[in-house]
Amino acid sequence: MKKPLILFVLLLLFAGCLKQQQKPQAPQKKSSDNTRVASWVTGLSSKYFVVGIARKSNDVENMTESAKQMAAVMMNRNNSSFVIKNFASTETENIRNSGNASFALNVGSSPQKLKGVYNSLELVDFSMAYGYFFGLFSVNKVAAPSCSQINLTEQPPKWYREDYFEEDSEKIVFQSKATSIDLKTAWEKAAETVRQKFALYLVKEIEGRILDAEDMVREDIAMESRLMLKNLVISRSYFVPRLQNGTWRYDVYFEMFMEK
Questions:
Q1: How much is the pLDDT for 79?
Q2: How many domains does the structure of the chain reveal?
């Protein structure tokens, strides 16, 4: 969607969620502390959509642009990103049990791919709550799904477990949680955490193959695993806003799966 059209639509200030094939229209804000969000904020299991978040602002263009940039980075890293993992081993030390693993970086595979993802995204719906703008962006003009407005609870989602892991013949599933006084930061941290869980799983698979070949490693070997994560899909998400001593804190919960 071109910038002039986005600005025009956001300033219409109509209420409600969008139906399929409709252009985005901004919901009517009855108060500055709206606590209802579109249902797609808490889970939209599709590789064709991604949520971007920005602080609510009267500068509609910059607010929307900030949300789109976040959405592009999120989708690019879920579709194709590198996780760098460094560890060192000494003589007679078992790689699998070395305990020195650390993830230094999770980045998109290339600036060109990120630019391509950014250019493919179009704002198709949005919601505002807790002083934040939530933009739903689709790839290649895929129509927005129908949705409802929901109230968030103060309890973690029933589906979340910190150590959750599922694997079958088709997919691998992990969950994560992150907390911050800034909702956008917590959202990004939760995504980062769950990606690193996938990377750690893949590292163990690689190390297992190494051990099958040679159980012991030579003295002072330093290894770097440059792992490519591909085709991660956010299957469920949720956030719990908590007001503590006059300050909002946000717990964000993610579930992602990776197809085999």
A1: 85
A2: 1
